[in-house]
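Hi R.,

As promised on Friday, here is the backbone we talked about, encoded as structure tokens. Could you run it through your design pipeline when you get a chance and send me back a sequence?
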């Protein structure tokens, strides 16, 4: 598996599949994790691949203005941004039609 990562470093579709298989092999097996990381050099290779793909994503990403002060990049200007999809929360985060809670 580590050999496949080395040989096909530039094929994103194959890298995703090989990493998925490596995850399955290592998820519940400490010996496999250690063997892949140390014996086969998998840790350095995986970090290198991650750095390469991250650099590509950052380079290709469109420029976006920085978030407004006090706002994270993922928040929005709507008062219900944190409400789960389909939730019926009002502007104060209260359920529509529910009695107001004491502040």
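Update: got your reply. Pasting your designed sequence below so it's all in one thread:
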């Amino acid at each position: 598996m580590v050999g496949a990562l080395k040989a096909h470093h530039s094929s994103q579709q194959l890298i995703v599949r090989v990493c998925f298989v490596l995850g399955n092999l290592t998820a519940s097996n400490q010996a496999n994790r250690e063997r892949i990381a140390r014996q086969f050099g998998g840790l350095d290779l995986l970090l290198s691949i991650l750095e390469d793909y991250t650099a590509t994503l950052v380079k290709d990403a469109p420029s976006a203005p920085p978030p407004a002060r006090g706002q994270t990049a993922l928040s929005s200007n709507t008062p219900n941004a944190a409400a789960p999809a389909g939730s019926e929360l009002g502007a104060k985060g209260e359920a529509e039609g529910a009695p107001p809670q004491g502040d």
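One thing I noticed while checking it: Residues 50 and 65 are 25 Å apart (CA to CA).

Thanks again,
M.
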